[in-house]
Specification:
By secondary structure, this protein is an alpha/beta fold. Helices cover about 35% and strands about 15% of the residues. It has two domains: about 5-165 and about 335-345, Rossmann fold (3-Layer(aba) Sandwich), CATH 3.40.50; about 180-335, 3-Layer(aba) Sandwich (Rossmann fold), CATH 3.40.50.2000.
Length: about 350
């Protein structure tokens, strides 16, 4: 096969939503260009509801043939999350950020609209079968962490190689003083469990505040919870912030609290470490546990408010300990680089 020169990176994006996957795609395109490839992002809006719309989304991507662009051959297509890997191309590589988790391990939980009712089971089985067939078309199959690779093996019988990369803010993050607030970063969705942090704040010393950076569909519920717990003077919602503002928030935080349920990767962990801040996470957080070591570079608590509160209090009461954890986190995150990532994805050297 001739050397790869032109690369298209596929993205499915919910309009007005900009999270880890979107940052991931942009960072990959930028790195491909930096290494000399002609790279471009291809995006189709994503709408997952009502449930039957998921099949429509699959069909939309299946109709897309990216083998050529303006009568020129496209050498390589890199698919990312569901349903981009349904795209048609003879040299398709998948770097799996995540599948549609509501039909996998989240089915039947509060984090999924899928139950074990007959209609849901039929639709779920159909989508999993289609997933398996499309992903098996990949010339090479990678995941962005061990968690999605494990899921892929369990449900689809496919093997993916975990391929780690640094977060998009890696070059901008910087250390700062250990301030008076715990920081939460990310989309406000049920599976991010920001409500767990808010409930923990009600059990911590009033001198510790919480800053929540991000937006999402769970914001009204979280607002109501803050009011119910009478925490209006201690909890701040920033909404979306610029990269510069987010760098400052990381730099001046006491710690970053990140308790998602079974996260696939989670930029937040590495971003916190690169800002030399400790992470407080939970025993069921998934991806963050690939990087966080209890008492070494962060604290791992049971997923209950009292345990999170105790971890936050421990850091607030011992700033030298928090600093030591943050420095150890930096050493861990600094080992995650782009070196070799593009070479593994592309499969050859540009000539």
């Amino acid at each position: 096969m001739s050397a790869v020169r032109t690369v298209l990176v596929c993205e499915a994006q919910v309009p007005f939503v900009y999270g880890g996957a979107e940052r991931h795609v942009r960072a990959l395109v930028a790195e491909l260009r930096r290494q000399g490839y002609r790279a471009k992002k291809v995006s189709i809006p994503f709408k997952p509801y009502p449930k039957g719309e998921l099949l429509t989304q699959v069909a939309l991507w299946r109709l897309v043939d990216l083998s050529e662009a303006n009568y020129e051959p496209v050498d390589l297509v890199i698919a990312t999350k569901f349903p981009t890997y349904f795209v048609r191309h003879p040299n398709k590589v998948t770097w799996l950020f995540h599948q549609y988790r509501g039909i996998y391990e989240l089915c039947g939980t509060a984090f999924s609209e899928f139950s074990h009712a007959e209609g849901d089971v039929r639709l779920r089985d159909r989508l999993i079968t289609l997933d398996t067939e499309a992903l098996a078309e990949s010339k090479r199959l990678f995941s962005n962490a061990r968690n999605p690779a494990t899921r892929l093996a369990k449900y689809n019988g496919l093997v993916a190689e975990p391929l780690y990369h640094p977060p998009p803010l890696a070059g901008a993050l910087e250390p700062g003083p250990f301030g008076d607030y715990a920081l939460s970063v990310g989309r406000l969705e049920l599976n991010k469990r920001v409500d767990l942090i808010i409930r923990a704040m009600a059990l911590t010393d009033p001198s510790v505040r919480l800053v929540i950076a991000g937006h999402g569909a769970d914001r009204p519920r979280l607002d109501a919870l803050v009011s119910t717990l009478d925490l209006r003077d201690r909890v701040t919602f920033t909404g979306d912030v610029s990269d510069r503002e987010l760098v400052d928030l990381y730099a001046n935080a006491l710690a970053v609290v990140y308790p998602p349920f079974d996260e696939d990767y989670g930029y937040v962990t590495l971003e916190a470490f690169l800002a030399r801040k400790p992470i407080v996470t939970t025993t069921d957080a998934g991806g963050p546990l690939e990087f966080v070591e209890e008492g070494v570079n962060g604290l791992v608590a049971d997923p209950v408010p009292a345990a999170l509160a105790a971890a936050i209090a421990r850091l607030a009461n011992d700033r030298p300990f928090a600093r030591r954890l943050g420095e150890a986190g930096f050493e861990r995150a600094a080992r995650v680089t782009w070196t070799g990532v593009v070479e593994r994805l592309v499969g050859n050297q540009l000539r």
